[in-house]
Design goal:
about 280 residues; about 0% strand; 2 domains; globular; mainly alpha; single chain
Amino acid sequence: NRGTTAGDYSFFLDTMTEPTVNKTIEEYLTKAQMKPITKDRTSIDISIFREAVGNTLTNITSIYSEEVAEDLGHAYLVDKLHHYRKRREDHNACLPKPQPRPKKPTVMEAYTQKTYLYSLKPYWLSQNLDREARALISKKFPDSLAGLMCPATQCLPPSVTARAAFDYIEEMTGATTASNMRHQELLQGLINREYVPGISLAKLYFNQCETDQHRINAIGVAIIPDTQIMVGAQLAFQKVIDSTVMQIMDNAWTTISATNLYSSPEITYRQFKAHY
């Protein structure tokens, strides 16, 4: 019947399932990925780095599971909406709001205290990861966030999240000659991407095409629709797959697409990807 002690609360913290982060985000990234770009940066540079940080954050799981798919970890801290939907393979998915700070219980009873501490740990984890990602942006792109600095403190306001910082420098960079050339280069790569037959290699092919699409769209010159991937995929498959087999697959897809004539482009693409 003794009262709950600080030692009990320490035990609660030690037994929580939220993962312990032993590496910083930067330690997951390569030296090439962290090489600073001080001038002539393009939207694609920002997009590639954003993607690298997001991929790293997927490795750091979260128990904020009411809002976040566990297998995506903390990628939601930096992802743009369309990229987050691609990760979840759900065209209706919404970007999760930042995890709110848990309310401290007024009654210091053991169970409520345990629940509070359980929720507090992932909250601080998400806050620390967001600040760390934001600091990496300044390190990768020096002086890129100067316009957001508070004049009095010469620091970024707490309200500027990592995602907001990425959005800001993308907007400030805009389209340049280098961006236009990179757009054409990536688009040509997407159109000419070859398919190599093999187990699970079709999935890899589509993932590579989606990566190209995401990078092209991030440049901001023009948006590449999913139908571009679909057309390119059929051409790539026709080059290496037996013509009879390919005809059967194409005929079956024609039937599927006719049945779902009024489906959204996102659903049509997912069906196409699953079919082929």
